[in-house]
Amino acid sequence: MGLARYFVKRILFSVPLIFIIITINFILVHIAPGDPLSYIVGTEYVSPEYLQKLRREYGLDRPLWERYLIYTSRVLQLDLGISYRFREPVINVILERLPATLLLMLVSIGWSSAIGILIGVKAAKNYGRSFDKFASILASISVSVPTFWLGIIMIIFFGVMLRLTPTQGMLSPSFMGAKQLTFEMMLDILWHLILPTLTLGIVYLGTYIRSVRSLLVDELGKEYILFAHAKGLGSSYILWRYAFRAVSPSINALIGLNLGTMLAGATLTETVFAWPGMGRLIYESAIARDYPVILGIFIFVAISVILANLIIDMINALLDPRVRY
Amino acid sequence: MKMIFSTRSNARMKNAFNSLSRESKNLLKYLSRGPLTFFSLTFSIMIVFMALFAQFITPYDPYKINPYATFRPPAAEYPFGTDDLGRDVLSQVIYGARTSMIIGASAALLSILIGTLLGLVAGFFGGRADLAISMFIDAKLSIPTFFLILVIIAIFGGSIINMIIVIGITIWPPIARVVRAITQSIKAMDFVEAARALGASTVWIIFRHILPQTVGIVLSLGILQMGSAIVIEAGLSFLGLGDPTLISWGKMLSIAQTYISRAWWMGFFPGLFLFLTILSFNVLGDKLYEYFNPKLRERVIYI
């Protein structure tokens, strides 16, 4: 099977997934308490005639299957409704919060995957020895620590006790309302980024250590590794050029999954540090019962996960012929 | 004749009992190896004990407001200090263990039921049922679990029953996957074919030959799921979406956030117990998984 055919097949495979997601969302909208129209008019009082008109306009007087088709076509055109709270199209509200989340997530996944891979490789190399045991304890702690508690501990220690770093928000008050992004402002954002990214990265670290270690231990038990040794190749050459290369598609897939889920992944961390991203938007919308925004993010996140998986699979297909065949 | 039959079945029972007690002794030995595993075993037993006997071991009434004892730092009188309303933090932490255990155990049980059933159906019958269930699991994987639960709870409200149901029906896919794989591999074995040739029904094959093989793995995954259910509940309560009538570690942390620079103990202790509980369940679940998957235990590497 050629590369092009694999790509087409892979794209076709994700289409039904997107429809399942839209369907789940449609069901949620319709079984949610209250009239679906209330998602459009919000809490404002409107006359019954106007409601009737809206009902016709949005096709709510039609049968269910027809409504489903209308809903699907609207979602596909990125029309996710109007937010109650902001009186703005949901898509604009979401896009406004996107950069802060992308910054936090890319930095956190970046450093935690790099360090996690290094620790995981070293643990696999020292399988069963003390470094391996240390790494597995570290990974257990990392995957178990609740982000919001770790965040609070960070704030108490670095913010309250040592008074080293800022603990809330993304920008110092003096920069607020600035029109242009200056160098000082970028430094200020990075300074605010330290605690949130430390918290989030520590939580991600464990999954990378675990997966890399267990994938590599499997790989290092194969006979071609023994054969490479017999040929007289050095340990670190075998480790990186043979074993690591063989498992890297799986590591890519894991990073891809994390990148895909990152848009929604940081609700708790963003809430603790008042980071103005999507995660905090989810929390605020949940508290304010701003359903159009919640459901809009839901679709947005699910589709971005599917796309991230698609892209990672394509990259893997380019790098690794085994995937294609 | 009847006599003989009953002694024989007695002997069989005794045999089964012996092998069961041998098995559990081995298991206990396996779970006491290594400091972290031993700690996890001890700590989870302690948490279960705290949850069961909360009303007998709390030093104070966790709801009792005392305006003369607000923000007391940890000392002999109040080992974990008191909160903004003068309530004892230790007593609240003990009751919080009960909330976590109830939600964790019920949600894990629900996910085991759903996961085992769907896994069996997909693995045993294959074909369209398998395709539909696998497709559903794939779609489910593209939505982050905590986020999905948060959306549903935000819409329907976070009573304790809602939380158990929503957590239970969202965390079953790992169990379904494993049960499906085990079912497929056992179904293909010769002895199942032989049993069928002898006239065994589908129900008999499932209950006699397949389900018993999944018990260990499902149990270990169930313990891992219990840890996730506990952290999900705490997260929801932390965001103010949980059950407002319950004492929950997450809710305590949420209140503590307001007084973060004034009373560190209000957030530190509930969070510590939350962390250690999840850690213990995770470590125990992993160890059990390893125990029931001997392939994972002793591996060889050529480097």
List the helices and strands and how they pair.
The complex is a heterodimer of chains A (about 325) and B (about 300).
Chain A lengths: L2 H29 L6 H4 L6 H10 L6 H13 L13 H36 L4 H15 L2 H15 L21 H38 L2 H8 L4 H31 L1 H6 L5 H10 L3 H29 L1 H4 L1
Helix pairs in contact in A: 1-4, 1-13, 5-6, 5-8, 5-10, 5-13, 6-8, 7-8, 8-10, 10-13, 12-13
Chain B lengths: L1 H30 L3 H18 L1 H4 L31 H37 L1 H15 L3 H12 L3 H9 L4 H15 L2 H8 L4 H37 L10 H10 L6 H28 L11
Helix pairs in contact in B: 2-4, 2-12, 4-5, 4-7, 4-8, 4-10, 4-12, 6-7, 8-10, 10-11, 10-12, 11-12
- Low-confidence runs of chain A (pLDDT<50, min 5 residues)? none
Classification by helices and strands of chain A: mainly alpha
* Overall pLDDT confidence of chain A: 85
Strand-residue proportion of chain A = under 5%
Order of helices and strands of chain A: HHHHHHHHHHHHHH
Approximately what portion of the residues of chain B adopt beta-strand conformation?
under 5%
Quote the distance from N terminus to C terminus of chain A.
6 Å
Overall 3D shape of chain B: globular
- Which sequence of SSEs, written as H and E, runs from N to C of chain B? HHHHHHHHHHHH
Helix content of chain B: over 70%
Largest sheet properties of chain A: none
Q: Describe the largest sheet of chain B.
A: none
> Using DSSP, what is the number of strands of chain B?
0
Largest interface: A-B, 62 and 50 residues
Query: Over the alpha carbons, how many angstroms does the gyration radius of chain B reach?
Result: 23 Å
Given helix and strand content, the structural type of chain B is mainly alpha
Total beta-strand segments of chain A: 0
